[in-house]
Design a protein that fits this description.
Blueprint: H1 4-11, H2 14-31, H3 38-62, H4 64-69, H5 71-74, H6 86-107, H7 110-134, H8 138-146, H9 149-158, H10 163-186, H11 188-194, H12 199-202, H13 205-225, H14 233-256, H15 259-287
């Protein structure tokens, strides 16, 4: 049984935030300024967790009735389980969001603070309240919020942006639709019950698989573009291997159209992104110095 603190942490969607922190840390490693300043490195990650966690908590606050209708969320999230009240969740979400934005502004720069606030509001309000209930493009457009961690981390370190963090952004942005559409395919009944216009519900499975393949091809191409802005041969080889296997998983799922194949695609998509960014970190830290 979780403690009250555990329920508040659940509001931040910690498994999703692990990915956000990892992609932000990758940008910090690639940029390099804070590699010898671990305090600032960790402070950036704390700011990312607070602002991203705030967006996720607000998302759960606004979607508490929808979450109660969906089997995937009804038994896992603290609001439909009544472990926390809506007012508690709202106060918590706003508080950690403000702390995160002010942290970026005070310790780093106001460019990062403004970007973080804009990302938070985009996800918590525009995506949650408008995009998700009204269009199957919700994941495509809304994915921009989840992809901003590398750009925000880079801006915190330098006070500006560059091509490299925007390529990292684009990788996450293109990865998000295939990742979530694979989930939506085998959780389609949940989205039907909640009356959410996810792509498999609106356009059907075949159209969803076509879109997954289109985005997967684009993702692989953009991942290779990092080689032009500092990634080395180790990264390039691993990006090709991971991309090839992700494409294979997508093709198998399209051919079989079974729940195990869809779950397999969803699961490997997570391995793919972590593996890709881990390869970039290893390439920079270990092989560039040789």
């Amino acid at each position: 049984m979780l403690t009250a603190l555990g329920y508040y942490i659940q509001l931040t969607k910690p498994t999703i935030m692990l990915l956000v922190l990892f992609t932000g840390a990758t940008a910090l490693v690639m940029e390099g300024s804070f590699l010898h300043e671990p305090g600032k490195f960790l402070l950036v990650l704390l700011g990312l967790y607070l602002t991203g966690g705030s967006a996720n908590a607000l998302n759960q606050y606004f979607e508490r009735d929808i979450d109660a209708k969906m089997e995937r969320t009804a038994r896992r999230r603290p609001l439909p389980l009544h472990y926390l009240g809506p007012k508690q969740a709202l106060i918590f979400a706003i508080s950690i969001g403000l702390i995160g934005v002010l942290l970026f502004g005070y310790f780093f720069n106001w460019l990062t603070a403004v970007m973080s606030l804009a990302t938070l509001l985009f996800y918590a309000l525009f995506y949650t309240l408008f995009l998700k209930p009204h269009t199957w493009h919700n994941i495509v457009i809304g994915g921009a919020a989840g992809a901003m961690a590398p750009v925000g981390a880079w801006a915190a370190a330098t006070g500006q942006t560059a091509v490299a963090p925007w390529l990292l952004f684009l990788i996450i942005f293109l990865w998000t639709p295939p990742h979530f559409w694979a989930l939506a395919l085998y959780c389609k009944e949940d989205y039907i019950k909640a009356r959410l216009p996810m792509l498999p519900v609106v356009k059907g499975d075949d159209a969803t698989f076509r879109q997954i393949l289109i985005y997967t091809y684009a993702l692989i191409l953009v991942s290779l573009a990092l080689f032009a802005v500092g990634a080395g041969w180790l990264y390039l080889v691993i990006a090709l291997l991971l991309g090839g296997y992700l494409l294979r998983k997508a093709m198998v799922a399209r051919r079989l159209k079974t729940v195990p194949s869809m779950r397999g695609l969803f699961g490997f998509s997570i391995v793919y992104l972590f593996g890709l960014f881990l390869a970039l970190i290893a390439d920079i830290l270990f092989f560039r110095a040789i």
